Amino acid sequence: MGETAPGYHAGGQIKKIEIMTKRNRKGIFYVIAALALGTAGLSGCAKTGSSFTTSKLTYLSVLHMAPYAPATDIYLNGALSTSTGGIAPNSGSNQYSHLQPQNYDVQFKKTGSDSLMAEIPSSPYDTLNFYTLILYNSTPGGGAVKAVKINDDFSSISAVNANYRFFNMSPDAPSVDFYLNGALAQTSRTPADNVYVTAYNTFQPVAGGPSSSLMIKAAGTDSVLATLNNVDIEPGSVYTFFLSGTRNSSGNNMKILTLTAAY
Fold it and tell me: Within 10 A of 229 (CB to CB), how many other CB atoms are there?
């Protein structure tokens, strides 16, 4: 397998959900399909206006992709929801955690302090929906720390092919090309462009394979910024690939992270 974004131990309102093993995971596609079908005959599932059911779950993943920021604690509606030590830069959830569906105001604070780095204003986290929260820097050398909430849509993923999306989360990589198994897959991806071009958050089908390779080059050149080999890309599974880290006077510290959708 490729290098994965480390998980975090969630406390408070976020509850960890057992991660599916490689042997029994057939891709999140099948689980979501079963959940969706299962709601048809259940009472208490619908919501009216701003009233959300608490008998079901919503799913949340958190990624700290701001390399110039310190470790972060997460507060949900003012309650600390991460364990001691917080979430370090270039790391985050390795699976979706679950929450009671409702509105949440999300604050990212410097670990162990009341220093607010970024905030996602109160918004709904609804039943059987999946969300990814990303903390990021968008300018070289750091700049402001920002946060975004992404709706993860698994409704049209392929059960035959693997499914992937790619995020450039390195503020020091102004424009990059993404290669999968030697083939140019995406071009001219800029830092955190998925925040503004929401189509980049959509999962794309890909053949993949048990020993796939990923490569990032400076856009339009042969200058390699990061590589990752022997990545297990399975049919029916869902992946997010990230370029993370920095490239400055101290050298190139960029790397590719992979996150498999699981909960």
Answer: 11
In 3D space, the residue among 237, 222, 216, 228 whose CA is nearest the CA of residue 32 turns out to be 237
Helix (H) or strand (E) holding 200: none
Residue labelled with tokens 């009233």: 51
- Which residues have CB under 8 Å from 252's CB, separation 6+? 225
Give me the amino acid identity at 228: L
Closest by CA position to 259, among listed 150, 125, 160: 150
CB 47 within 8 A of CB 53: yes
Query: For residue 249, which phi and psi values (nearest 5 degrees)?
Result: -60, -20
What pTM was computed for the model? 0.81
Helices (H), the chain: 28-38
Whether 241 and 204 have beta carbons less than 8 Å apart is answered as no
Q: What six digits make up the tokens of 212?
A: 């796939």
Q: What is the DSSP letter of 60?
A: E
Q: pLDDT tens digits for 188-239?
A: 999 999 999 999 999 999 998 899 999 999 999 999 999 999 999 999 999 9
* Residue from 195, 150, 172 nearest 243 by CA: 172
Indicate the helix (H) or strand (E) that contains 228. strand 224-233
What residues contact 211, with CB distance under 8 A and at least 6 apart? Answer: 229, 230, 231, 232
Measuring CA to CA, which residue among 165, 168, 209, 18 is closest to residue 95? 18
Give 146-194 pLDDT, tens digit per residue: 999 999 999 889 989 999 999 999 999 999 999 999 999 999 999 999 9
| Cα torsion angle, 10, 16, 21, 22, sign | negative
